[in-house]
Amino acid sequence: MPISSPATHILGVIPARWGSTRFPGKPLHAIAGKPLVQHVWERCQQCSLLDDILVATDDVRIMEAVTAFGGKAVMTSPDHPTGTDRIAEAVRSVPQATHIVNIQGDEPLIDPGLIDLLASAMANDPALDMATAANPLDPADPAVHDPNVVKVVTALNGRALYFSRSPLPFFRNVVPGLPVLRHKGIYAYRRAFLERFVTWPPSPMEQAESLEQLRALENGASITVILTADISSGVDTPEQAREVERMLGKSC
After folding, report:
1. Are 16 and 57 in contact (CB under 8 A)?
2. 43-47, 156-160, 174-178: least confidently modelled range
3. Phi/psi of residue 86, each to 5°?
């Protein structure tokens, strides 16, 4: 998946904030002897298309931990309403970056190949504003009706039409082979688009669904959705952290 332009500089940014209602200090929670954020960093190190990697944080403890394991971190405001706003601030410290991949700081099992696919899609298609990913679900899977599982529908060319916490699409008729697509919270942006995005106010559908990617769609953005078999999920609770540790132990 070569990059077509030698002037392209792709920056991977891992947002990692201290505050969490269910799991305060989550980025530094130890999993298999390493902070959670270090596992994400090491996955990014396996990518072939990231020119640089940066952790964007709001807490000096996280910044010090990242520096201690050899990573790069930048302090950002604790008042950002979204992770995208935090990333936009962090990107200002890397003026040469042309494209940005937002890698969730709580996904220690993220597939490096998926990160590269998003980076390649963005760098090789100048018409794209954003790229994201989704994995197919069986329409009978209970997750289809779970509002914590975000769904997406796409046009025939793979562009996103809508994201929702509701079942999407609604199957009034059986369509053999048509899956439900579970959205994965990873994004890639063209830098100029990211800088515009954070100047727009929250949009009506974004506020209704509490999904900031709808702000992009409501403002006419072009978002491609890459299908993936990667079903890794984020760590939102200490119980999920223990499950990830068990999975990492099996893979050793």
Report:
1. yes
2. 174-178
3. -65, -40
The Cα 86–Cα 18 span in angstroms is: 13
Whole-angstrom Cα distance, residue 102 to residue 90?
11
- Single pTM value for the model: 0.92
Nearest-angstrom CA–CA distance, 36 and 24:
13
Domain annotation for the chain: domains and CATH numbers: 10-251 (3.90.550.10)
State the chain's mean pLDDT as an integer.
Answer: 92
CA dihedral 43, 46, 48, 52 (to 10 degrees): 60
Crossing angle of helices 60-68 and 36-45, in 10° steps, is 50
Q: 153 CB contacts (<8 Å, ≥6 apart)?
A: 160, 161, 162, 168, 169, 181
Cis bond before residue 6 (omega within 30° of 0): no
Name the one residue in this structure whose structure tokens are 């640089």. Answer: 52
Q: State the amino acid at position 39 in one-letter form.
A: H
Beta strands in 29-129 (DSSP E): 30-31, 34-35, 52-57, 73-75, 99-102
What pLDDT sits at residue 252? 46
Whole-number pLDDT of residue 251: 57
